[in-house]
Every structure is written in structure tokens, then in C-alpha cells.
């Protein structure tokens, strides 16, 4: 059985997408990133490749060494781990 591969197309106006998604496979209904992570939707995979894959987390905790790729993850971490510190500030 062949697995469909996505292709990278030029956008309107001749612009190229900010990330190339070559070698991305749809396996068992999941989009597979070359790094090994898999996603239900191609949009989620594209977001992962643009913001996370091969990059350091950009959101840093002010109270400990924790780092997150998404702001909401840092907010949840701060609430769960540093609730008392945040309430007293």
C-alpha cells in the first residue's frame, strides 16, 4: 500500500512557505514528522514544524529552569508549580 506524501507548493504571488514539509508521510491516519512525532491533522504538523521542530523552547519560567514551546503550557506550569509564589507577588 502506498503512503501519500505531502508536497510543498508555491503560495500566491510567488512566495514560498516559511517551512518545507517534504518527506512528511500520512501513516495510519496520522501525519508523521521526520523527527518522529505524529499528528491527527496536517495543520497541527505544520504548526509543530514551524514553531517547535528542531528549535529550543521560547517561553521560559521566571521561577525555575522550565521552558515551553507554547505560552499556554508555561501558564499551566506556573499555575500548577508556582501558585503560591505568583499569589504573593
TrEMBL record:
Origin: domain of life: Eukaryota
Signal peptide: none
GO molecular function, one term: zinc ion binding
Domain C2H2-type, first and last residues per copy: 31-57
Keyword entries, A-Z: Metal-binding, Zinc, Zinc-finger
Protein name per the record: Longitudinals lacking protein, isoforms A/B/D/L-like isoform X13
Provenance organism: Aphis craccivora
